[in-house]
Specification:
Blueprint lengths: L1 H21 L60 E6 L5 H16 L3 E6 L4 H13 L4 E5 L7 H9 L4 E4 L11 E5 L1 H15 L6 E7 L5 H14 L5 E8 L4 H14 L8 E4 L2 H13 L7 E6 L3 H8 L5 E4 L4 H12 L7 E4 L3 E2 L4 H4 L6
Parallel strand pairs: 1-2, 1-3, 3-4, 4-5, 5-11, 6-7, 6-8, 8-9, 9-10
Antiparallel strand pairs: 10-12
Helix pairs in contact: 2-10, 3-4, 5-6, 7-8
Length: 369
């Protein structure tokens, strides 16, 4: 019996071994794939080197007295290739002599060429001068004229040829165009002068006035007369002794004033001489002095740039002069700005001031000899 159990057990063991051997091996869980190595970080692209700093060009040196802000025109021409022409209606007094001198000095300080003409008080010559400057190939034309209408055809020719025009002091007639017109309001000056008369003679029963007029055809001269009369004509106290043209000339004003004094010999028959510029005011002073009547008359002028005028104010010979620059500096600055391609105002109105004994010392240092 024992032997039988032994065989049974042995058979079971063998059977178990066979079953185990025939069973498929347990599938191993697949090994996790080796982590793919992250690609090596790409080398940072070397920073592009900033271009080596270029040396800034040396600042352009503008010569002393030159109003330009650069040394070439808008299209790159040096000033030495540029010609500026200046047409004067008449170089007939210190104001205009200095206008030519100062404008010439400013233009030539920049290295540009300068041509000037003097129409000698002739409208026909003024037109011819403008045409001549155009024929000489000026790059820019400056004009200061008494002949607003006569010069219009010449200015129109400059306009048609693309030559820029700068107008100083007195406006041009209809049909003439320009880049800029530089002046002081002559009507305002004349209004101020008229009010000065009324203020200084407010207690008088009568105000006897002599007016010395500038040149016919000049817009500035016309306005200096119109503005003065606008204030005074309707005042019952005002009496016009004489209104005479002396063409802005000192010598002519002496002669005219001598004739007026002879026609009005009584002391107190003239209270005021209103001269449309200081040259005529100084002429009136000469005649009044010679007649021994300067102390009874208030002499008024316009310009306020002459040292002689300032001396006369300090001496009590001229009561007041209204400052009116000759625009040479302003004209030169505008001319170069235009040629540089910079914008300029169409009309520039400068400031005026009444120069008298109270402030003449302040303005004296800039007067013209």
């Amino acid at each position: 019996m024992r032997k039988k159990w032994f065989f049974v057990l042995t058979a079971l063991v063998i059977l178990t071994s066979v079953i185990a051997a025939c069973s498929p091996a347990a599938t191993q869980a697949p090994a996790a794939p080796a982590a793919t190595a992250a690609p090596a970080a790409t080398e940072a692209v070397a920073a592009t080197a900033a271009p080596a700093a270029t040396t800034a060009p040396a600042a352009v040196q503008i010569p002393a007295g030159c109003p330009a802000t650069q040394m070439t025109t808008a299209d790159g021409k040096p000033w030495s290739d540029i010609t500026i022409g200046f047409s004067e209606g008449a170089v007939d007094g210190v104001w205009r002599v200095k206008q030519v001198e100062w404008l010439k000095a400013a233009v030539e300080a920049c290295g540009a060429k300068f041509i000037t003409t003097d129409a000698q008080g002739s409208g026909a010559k003024n037109l011819s001068d403008v045409e001549d400057l155009i024929s000489k190939g000026v790059n820019l034309l400056v004009i200061s004229t008494y002949f607003a209408d006569e010069v219009v055809p010449g200015i129109q020719e400059a306009n048609a040829k693309g030559i820029p025009v700068v107008v100083l002091s007195s406006d041009l007639g209809q049909g003439a165009d320009y880049k800029t017109f530089i002046t002081v309001n002559n009507l305002d000056i004349a209004h101020n002068a008229g009010n000065w008369v009324l203020d200084h003679f407010k207690d008088a029963d009568k105000i006897d006035i002599v007016e010395l007029i500038g040149r016919e055809g000049s817009v500035a001269a016309k306005q200096r007369t119109e503005g003065f009369h606008a204030i005074l004509d309707n005042n019952p106290k005002v009496h016009w002794v004489a209104n005479v043209t002396a063409h802005y000339m000192r010598a002519e004003a002496v002669t005219v004033m001598e004739d007026i004094l002879k026609a009005n010999p009584d002391k107190g028959s003239i209270d005021v001489v209103y001269a449309a510029n200081d040259e005529m005011a100084l002429g009136a002073v000469i005649a009044l002095k010679e007649a021994g009547r300067l102390s009874e008359v208030k002499v008024m002028g316009i310009d306020g740039i002459l040292c002689e005028d300032y001396d006369a104010i300090k001496a009590g010979e001229i009561a007041v002069s209204y400052f009116y620059p000759n625009f040479a500096d302003e004209g030169a600055a505008a001319a170069f700005a235009i040629l540089e391609g910079k914008p300029v105002e169409k009309k520039v109105i400068g400031q005026t001031v009444a120069i008298d004994l109270s402030n003449v010392d302040k303005y004296y240092p800039r007067c013209a000899k």
